[in-house]
Amino acid sequence: MQQRSHDTRKLLLTSAYELLERSPTARISTTALAEHAHVSIGTVYRYFPDVDAVLDELRMTAVHAITTSLSTAIGRAMDQQPEDAMATVVESLTAAFEKHAAVLRVSYTSEEIEFGLAWAEVEGPLRPLGRIIPARLRPDLDDAALDDLVFIVMGATASLCSRIALLRPRRSDRTRMIAVTARMLLAAIESA
Prior knowledge:
Mean pLDDT: 88
Number of helices: 11
Low-confidence stretches: none
Oligomer: single chain
Helix content: over 70%
Radius of gyration: 19 Å
Structural class: mainly alpha
Strand content: under 5%
């Protein structure tokens, strides 16, 4: 019984995600979700009180996946040269935002995405890991100055990666944008 309940909940979440991917600007309804999942509307309400609860769960899942992806990238970057390390972080975070774009677009306003305000949930738990590259490049900074630098660089990284992932013009070169972003962030760390 528990497995069936788990499977139904997962089906509803997967169906909601598919609806978001199909029509990223449209608001999904419980009726559309029930139809897409091939379940009754009562089944939807048995697992979620409303569509916002479904979207909240999808958002939390996306935040967890983005956090995990960024944490893994920072771990890989620790043994790389500075420019490669920064490119690894930028590429991984951009790819994570792209992978969860459908959820992020309905969870945050374009202003929150544009200015990096939506990523506090991701940034907070990763701040200790975010110190690794700046601390390696700037051993001359005391803890307070390093914390300030990390705060600024993490915000800039989130904002720039989200812009590349979610707001990039069609004809833009993603690879070049990631390389430019990595160099900009590295220059900011080295010159601070």
